[in-house]
Amino acid sequence: MSRVAALLAAALLAIGAAGCGGGGAEPGAPEGATLVLDFTPNAVHSGLYAAQRQGFYRDAGVDLTIREPGSSTDAPKLLEAGRADLAILDIHDLGIARERGLDLVGVMPLVQRPLASVIARADGPVRRPRDLEGHTVGVTGLPSDDAVVDSEVRADGGDPVRVDRITIGFNAVSSLASGKVDAATGFWNAEGVALRDKGVPIRVFKVDEYGAPPYPELVITASRSTIERDPKLVDAVVAATARGYRFAVANPAKALDDLLGSVPGLDRAEQAAQLRALRPDLEPAPFDPAVLRAWARWDLEHGLLHRPVDIGQAFQIG
Fold first, then answer.
1. What CA–CA distance (Å, rounded) separates 309 from 264?
2. Mean pLDDT over the full length of the chain
3. What mean pLDDT do residues 13-35 have?
4. pLDDT tens profile 212-228
5. Residue environment code for 142-163, b if the CB has 16+ CB neighbours within 10 A, otherwise e
6. 15 within 8 A of 243, measured Cβ to Cβ
7. Who wins on pLDDT, 115 or 29?
8. Strand 104-109 relative to strand 202-206: parallel, antiparallel, unpaired?
9. In degrees to the nearest 10, what's the CA dihedral of 142, 178, 41, 252?
10. In the prediction, which pLDDT does 19 show?
11. Which among 107, 305, 52, 311 is positioned nearest to 219, based on CA atoms?
12. pLDDT for 70
């Protein structure tokens, strides 16, 4: 059994304290750690908050502080500087950070497939990705959006060059609802859910159904120095987090209570809808090296990375 798989299996047994104390803490006291989120809290983070409020981190000997990202937060730099122990990164950002010389390592996949998609109005002219030719698609301006559009259109037999792209920032919902664009890039678990909630008829084209491999969109990441300095801490967080996500999958209503109890400003109906959409893809599993290699090729092919990723160095596998 691989190292990560063994940790996930251990989580199912509800192991007791992992004895991760150190750094001058009293014997048996939980060891403090900080995890920075990738975005403002939402349903995709439900397993983290469930693990915190259900006491799973405490059981594993960890006193985990979950930090929301600030407007200027650069999680990779926080990790490398030792100002955070772990962070959730988009897998593309992990690859880019490593390409820039930061020795960061993915230690656990949080979501088992891409969240990226192209969303089109169902009452419009775009019935499939190749129909984007000659029509407007809103993009945020991030390079990953162009990669998604290119991948989907090309995989469906179209020519990406013929797509009329309009930079709309992070306004996919309002732009589609108002008819400003025929389609837009967005997360199927967020913008897709929000549009349906508004009654906007949509078609969702998920990127792993059109050209991209089923890569894990979000990855819990640590610096190599943290992993080498305190492997028990990292292992304990991985095991407790896996336990939290298994709890969220099995008990979505309770996990939603834990999320809203920690972040009371969230809209319950919206988060419940997001969690329903996400639930099939939140089941913890170890990294699949074949999928990671396919992801690395896809990022290279679409210009998100400029040199091959060493999967064995970038991810904790086995």
1. 40
2. 91
3. 58
4. 999 999 999 999 999 99
5. bebbbbbbbbbbbbbebebeeb
6. no
7. 115
8. unpaired
9. -120
10. 33
11. 107
12. 82
pLDDT digit string, tens, across residues 148-171: 999 999 999 999 999 999 999 999
| Rounded Cα gap, residues 58 and 64, in angstroms | 8
Instruction: For helices 231-250 and 46-53, give the axis angle rounded to 10 degrees.
Output: 100
**Cα separation, 81 vs 9, whole angstroms:** 32
- Element (DSSP H or E) covering residue 56: helix 56-59
Tens of pLDDT, residues 194-215:
999 999 999 999 999 999 999 9
Residues 94 and 90: their CA atoms lie apart, in Å, by 6
Structural domains present in the chain:
3-113+215-314 (3.40.190.10), 116-209 (3.40.190.10)
**What is the Cβ-side half-sphere exposure of residue 47, based on CA atoms within 13 angstroms?**
28
CB 191 within 8 A of CB 172: yes
Q: In this predicted model, what pLDDT tens digit does every residue of 95-117 receive, in sequence order?
A: 999 999 999 999 999 999 999 99
Strands (E), the chain: 31-36, 62-67, 86-90, 104-109, 116-121, 136-139, 164-167, 183-187, 202-206, 218-223
**The residue count for the chain:** 318
Q: Residue 36 and residue 89: Cα distance in Å, rounded?
A: 9
pTM: 0.89
CA distance 282 to 244: 10
Q: How far is CA 299 from CA 38, 85, 205, 249, in A?
A: 20, 27, 19, 30
The residue written with tokens 């192209």 in the block is 118
* Sign of torsion over alpha carbons 228, 230, 235, 237: negative
